[in-house]
Amino acid sequence: MHRTLPASSRFLAALVLLPTLGLGGLAPEARGQSQDTTAQAVVEPALIRPGDVVRLQINREPEMSGDFPVDPAGLVVLPRLGEIQVLEETAETLEAKLLAQYRTFLRTPAINVTVLRRVSISGSVGRPGVYNLDPTMKVGDALAMAGGVNPQGDRGDIQVIRDGVRLSTALGQQTAISESIIRSGDQIYVPEKSWIARNAGVVAAVISATTAIVIAAVINN
Question: What long-range pairs does 129-136 form, CB within 8 A, spacing at least 24?
Fold first, then answer.
């Protein structure tokens, strides 16, 4: 014959199941989070974009070297040369272009151009802020610049947010910036771990204790 558990036992059984559900059954507002929107994004060609920073290094010319931002019109102001249009250029093509132009002022210029991506790093990191990222860096290197991920941060859910929209992408700490969707103006966001992940020991203890109580209650009924 089917036996129905008393109300008290059913309540205790619910307590056992609640931690295993986490907070996934609750509305985003109840979890203290806002509903976000995700969008697909693809890795784009390494063309210079507004917001990037051109790092110019001229051998034996420290006063002409430095980091120079690209304005919204795609212009960068460089020593001796003034305004240069850099949209649709790559680091390599810009380097060749500048090498030719600097020969007007320097006899044998040796030039290196690196295009940095200027992004915001926020969330569960030690020093949230805006950072210039070398494309050869890995995501983990970028997070280290921001003081590293805090103990409560979720290293497995590193997010990219663009114009308020979370982009759908797999972003690991070993992902190279150059091989990612990250571009200037984006936000790298490290969320906190879920409540269960942050309190795994407590959850395990509660499950163990409530399981024992439920079993005892069933036996005694």
Answer: 132/53, 132/55, 132/67, 133/177, 133/182, 134/55, 134/177, 135/46, 135/176, 135/177, 135/178, 136/176, 136/177, 136/178
Say how far apart CA 195 and CA 110 lie, in whole Å: 54
Greatest CA separation for the chain: 99
> Taking Cα atoms as reference points, which of 128, 138, 93, 116 lies closest to residue 185?
116
Q: Is 34 exposed, middle or buried (0-12, 13-18, 19+ CB in 10 A)?
A: exposed
pTM: 0.71
Are the C-beta atoms of 134 and 114 separated by less than 8 Å?
yes
pLDDT in tens, 121-152: 999 999 999 999 999 999 999 999 999 999 99
d(CA 124, CA 155): 9
CB atoms within 10 A of CB 83: 11
Q: How many residues does the chain have?
A: 221
